[in-house]
Amino acid sequence: MDVKPITRMLSVAGGGSRMSAEIESILGVDWDVPKKEYPPKVVLLPTGGRMVVREARMEELPKLIKAVAPLISVERDFYDIVAARLCGELLALYRHRARNEFCLVGIVNGKLAGVSNNRAFDAKTHISLHTIALKRGARVGTHMFAAKQENSMETLEAEEILVTAESPIGFRRLISQWCEPRPGIQHELNGAKTWVITREKYQKVKPQQVFGSRPVPDELMKSSETFEIAPLDWLPKE
Predict the structure, then answer these.
(1) What distance in Å separates the CA atoms of residue 138 and residue 55, rounded to the nearest whole number?
(2) How far apart are CA 18 and CA 20, in angstroms?
């Protein structure tokens, strides 16, 4: 890497806003592979509710962080580590320090039910990051995990998705059904085993795992353009 432009910027006396903008042009990252927006869909939950799954907008990310942050103190089902890492990933996306990352939200009756994110390592290989359910007992996490893999495979045309797990429940419900082992590859999240969703595997599990209908009815889509942060009333009492 040629460091001369960086050295020159740092040596400018009283660099001010111009120097900050120039440095930000080096540090800030966004998409460097083709990007298409996820087409919203509606999923019928086993509880009878309808969840709209859509791509999160940049201006919504601080609100998502605020919704997820309380779970950092919850040890149940490893919510703590998943929430901490997801908050960091959303903040990195908001501050332009995450490359090729997308975030999906699930909204039920105007309230945030789930969040999931992936990123593209390159045009062919994607990285499965995190999925978190804020609404329990409705298979929200399962549907959000499926939706982000659908986005990677179908909207963004990945050939494979690298996956790892932090929680036993995530492994049992998701990885064991979706993935094949990928020995010798280090996932960027941790040192646990890496698994892979190949295009062939995705097509096999899709009929049993990927649900939802499009287009979303206009009234339902309109009601899901914004969301409220619902109380986490399932959290253990202190």
Answers:
(1) 20
(2) 5
Supply φ then ψ for residue 121, to 5 degrees.
Answer: -70, -45
Reported as a single tens digit per residue, the pLDDT across 167-222 is 888 888 888 889 999 999 999 998 789 999 999 999 999 999 999 999 999 999 99
Segment 87-102, tens digit of pLDDT: 999 999 999 999 999 9
Confidence bin at 5 (pLDDT 50/70/90): low
| Domain residue limits, the chain | 29-223
pLDDT for position 4: 52
The reported pLDDT for the residue numbered 174 is 85
Please count the residues of the chain.
Answer: 238
Strands 125-133 and 111-120: antiparallel
CA 140 – CA 132 distance, rounded (Å):
8
Q: Report the relative pairing of strands 41-44 and 50-55 from DSSP bridges.
A: antiparallel
Question: Is the pLDDT higher at 237 or at 238?
Answer: 237
Pick the CATH number of 29-223 from 3.30.470.30, 3.20.20.70, 3.40.630.30, 3.40.50.280: 3.40.630.30
Phi then psi for residue 12, to 5 deg, are: -70, 125
Would you report the helix, strand and coil content of the chain in percent, each value rounded to 5? Answer: 40, 20, 40
Instruction: Give the single-character DSSP code of 184.
Output: T
* Alpha helices (H) in the chain, listed in sequence order: 4-10, 16-27, 61-68, 79-94, 140-150, 168-170, 176-178, 199-209, 218-223
Q: How far apart are the C-alpha atoms of 41 and 214, rounded to whole Å?
A: 5
